[in-house]
Amino acid sequence: MDFSVDESPAAKALGPLFKLTEVHLWDDGSSEEAESSHVQESTTGYGTTSGKGKGSGRINQRRPAEIADYMPDSTRGSEEEESRSPASVLNNSETLDQSDTLKNEIVAEIGCLPGASALSNEHEHDGEALKLEYKDHLGVPVEIPSSISKYWLQRYLLFSRFDNGIKMDEEGWFSVTPEILAKHHAERCGRGSVVDLFTGVGGNAIQFAQWSRHVIAIDIDPIKIDYARHNAALYGVGERIDFIKGDSFSLAPKLKADVVFCSPPWGGPGYSKVTKFDINTMLKPRDGKSLFDAGRRIAPKIVMFLPKNVDINQLAELSLSALPPWYLEVEKNYLNGILKTVTAYFCDPSSSL
Ligand code: ADP
């Protein structure tokens, strides 16, 4: 995503209130030792360029081709990714031969196939047949539906404690934020109170709870709330989150917090097929402006987690729609060197944050 503020009249109009940043996250995708992951940030303010390194260099160098390299763009369903996902290859017996090279590359890079330790013996990666069968934390065999097999191979990237008994429904697999990115969001959102408007199975809420004073996690789907509550307990943070089953837009006027976090539905895999993701027509269940206005009722700081091809001019227009205009930081999120998503941070200039 190349971007120049000159292409965006709204970003230009925001002037010094607008900035474009990047965060580069690396993860070994296998355990909580993601602590070794390194965060590097750079900032391009309007009209200027400057670096603001948060660390001194990449720590985890041992896996140049890591699991996230195979993640679907933005971690959500994308057909274009099918061709390079190890899961999609492994899942298709007709292409097993063609997959050998890729499979061997993965094994050479990371010592095993993602998740191999959790596979039952008969399915270990011995160069023979590979089937996605899994025994859960109670030892009960679980069949992995083909639709989620590629996400399942990345399960430790999504939840480092996956083997403790994490619960996901099919939609949850497509939409959960990778843990290292959720951690980054939590750090960025600070120590105060956070409302998570579309909590899903809890990937972000769990990280907020480890970082902030109080978390309110909302989802309209009761199953998601059940799973999020269960998953939060596995991380020992269940007590620090108030879970609410309900419509975020209806609840917004009744809520107050320091920060509101929104990872709204992107409207299905179609988002990746357009040059620019239009927040006025493609976000669900309501458009970007409705989301921004709902967020403003809750907090002076709004964080939106969006596709990498989001129209930055439209984000800047949201900032301009407030009087006075809000600060906007558009942060490009790279996982293992690949641009995956964008996080937009809006802030009321009259707040003390
Ligand atoms: P995506 O796959 O693009 O992330 P989803 O359709 O999975 O999007 O939606 C993300 C989450 O938002 C889901 O858990 C869904 O139940 C929840 N959600 C959708 N609409 C609302 C709403 N109005 N209020 C609260 N949660 C909602």
TrEMBL record:
<dbReference type="Pfam" id="PF09445">
    <property type="entry name" value="Methyltransf_15"/>
</dbReference>
<feature type="compositionally biased region" description="Polar residues">
    <location>
        <begin position="86"/>
        <end position="96"/>
    </location>
</feature>
<dbReference type="InterPro" id="IPR019012">
    <property type="entry name" value="RNA_cap_Gua-N2-MeTrfase"/>
</dbReference>
<protein>
    <recommendedName>
        <fullName>Trimethylguanosine synthase</fullName>
    </recommendedName>
</protein>
<feature type="region of interest" description="Disordered">
    <location>
        <begin position="28"/>
        <end position="96"/>
    </location>
</feature>
<comment type="similarity">
    <text>Belongs to the methyltransferase superfamily. Trimethylguanosine synthase family.</text>
</comment>
<dbReference type="InterPro" id="IPR029063">
    <property type="entry name" value="SAM-dependent_MTases_sf"/>
</dbReference>
